[in-house]
């Protein structure tokens, strides 16, 4: 996630000295409280740097997040480590509501499409690949002796640079980087870019395409085409039809239907909803901006199916009871018939004996 007109941030933050995790936690919490008291919003960027042993970096990240969750604080959303200087760099402030809601809206839209694809896919291998997809935006990459995590809320230039590093240094683990660039704090315009792996380097599929502008009477049309290979790479067994066409294939006129088509119209809806939640008195939403959740529809269908199953089971139980009753009555009738037949035999015997005595 990028921002136009970001707050001024020093390129190299002051490196502080901490000896324990609790000292780091105290600094983060106090800084956040001070920012909230001043701004009323945890927006912008505030980088914290401190030295830490490389062998303990992974554990440090986990412990910081776990401790912040215990304190009901936001987890660290950007974490970098410079091996050469043994320095950790953290963005200790959270995203603005605008950035967070846009990021979650984009994530949920992609997850919903993946869920729909999974529900309709008949091939067992494709279903397995769809299930294997990690949540977009969670990758951790070693690059130029740095550990980098997703760069939310930074300037466009820094995000683009890191996106290239992600793809070019990930050994094929990252296939695309999707960048949504928001005018902030004005919130009048928004752009989108898509960077994709192509052979040994990365290339722009779309670069700073405007998808929303309050000053335009007619909003731009377009879409981002995402393919299964963008999420799972060139996994064994993935059909060519589900792979992103290379630059050479596109030049040769080869096209393929995308697995997910993220339209500019849907991006606008996500943006409108996000800025309305961020500033409800200034911005409004439009009908349809709230995306339907396919999981809710599946849960509704499942609930209906369970109700129908319960009703069928009730009817079956009633039918079994009626059958049992019929079998009981039949058994009683057979007993009565047997008794009548016994009586008839007895009467015939007596009649025969009577005739013998009369003779």
SSE layout and pairings?
Blueprint: E1 2-4, E2 15-16, H1 21-39, E3 47-51, H2 57-70, E4 79-82, E5 87-91, H3 97-120, H4 124-131, E6 141-143, E7 146-148, E8 154-155, H5 156-168, E9 176-183, E10 189-198, E11 201-213, E12 223-226, H6 228-232, H7 247-251, E13 260-263, H8 264-278, H9 294-358
Parallel strand pairs: 1-8, 1-9, 2-3
Antiparallel strand pairs: 3-5, 4-5, 4-7, 6-7, 9-10, 10-11, 12-13
Strand order of the largest sheet: 2-3-5-4-7-6
Strand residue percentage = 15-25%
Q: Which whole number gives the mean pLDDT? A: 82
C-alpha end-to-end distance: 120 Å
Number of separate domains: 3
Secondary structure class reads alpha+beta
Query: Major sheet: size, sense and barrel closure?
Result: 6 strands, mixed
State the low-pLDDT regions, or none.
Answer: 6-11, 39-45, 143-152
Order of helices and strands: EEHEHEEHHEEEHEEEEHHEHH
- Roughly how many Å is the radius of gyration? 34 Å
Shape: elongated
Can you count the beta strands? Answer: 13
Helix share bin:
40-55%
Tally the helices: what do you get? 9
């Amino acid at each position: 996630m990028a921002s136009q007109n970001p707050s001024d941030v020093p390129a190299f933050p002051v490196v502080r000295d901490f000896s324990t995790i609790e000292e780091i936690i105290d600094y983060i919490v106090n800084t956040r409280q001070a920012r909230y008291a001043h701004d009323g919003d945890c927006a912008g960027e505030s980088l914290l740097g401190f030295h830490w042993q490389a062998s303990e970096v992974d554990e440090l990240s986990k412990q910081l997040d776990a401790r912040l969750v215990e304190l009901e604080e936001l987890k660290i959303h950007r974490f970098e480590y410079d091996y050469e200087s043994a320095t950790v760099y953290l963005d200790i402030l959270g995203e603005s509501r605008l950035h967070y809601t846009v990021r979650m809206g984009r994530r949920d839209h992609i997850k919903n499409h993946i869920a729909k694809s999974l529900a309709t896919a008949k091939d067992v291998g494709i279903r397995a690949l769809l299930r294997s997809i990690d949540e977009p935006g969670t990758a951790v990459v070693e690059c130029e002796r740095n550990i980098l995590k997703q760069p939310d809320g930074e300037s466009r230039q820094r995000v683009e640079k890191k996106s290239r590093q992600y793809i070019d240094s990930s050994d094929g683990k990252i296939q695309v980087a999707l960048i949504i660039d928001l005018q902030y704090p004005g919130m009048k315009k928004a752009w989108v870019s898509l960077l994709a792996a192509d052979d040994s380097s990365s290339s722009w599929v779309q670069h700073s395409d405007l998808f929303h502008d309050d000053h335009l009477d007619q909003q731009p049309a377009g879409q981002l085409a995402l393919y299964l290979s963008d999420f799972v790479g060139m996994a064994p067994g993935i059909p060519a039809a589900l792979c992103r066409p290379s630059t050479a294939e596109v030049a040769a006129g080869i096209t393929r239907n995308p697995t997910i088509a993220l339209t500019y119209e849907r991006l606008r809806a996500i943006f409108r909803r996000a800025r309305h939640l961020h500033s409800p008195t200034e911005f409004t939403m439009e009908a349809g901006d709230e995306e339907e959740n396919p999981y809710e529809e599946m849960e509704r269908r499942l609930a209906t199916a369970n109700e129908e199953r319960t009703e069928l089971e009730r009817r079956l139980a009633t039918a079994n009871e009626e059958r049992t009753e019929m079998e009981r009555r039949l058994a009683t009738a057979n007993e009565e018939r047997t008794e009548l037949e016994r009586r008839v035999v007895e009467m015939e015997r007596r009649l025969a004996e009577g005739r013998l005595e009369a003779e």
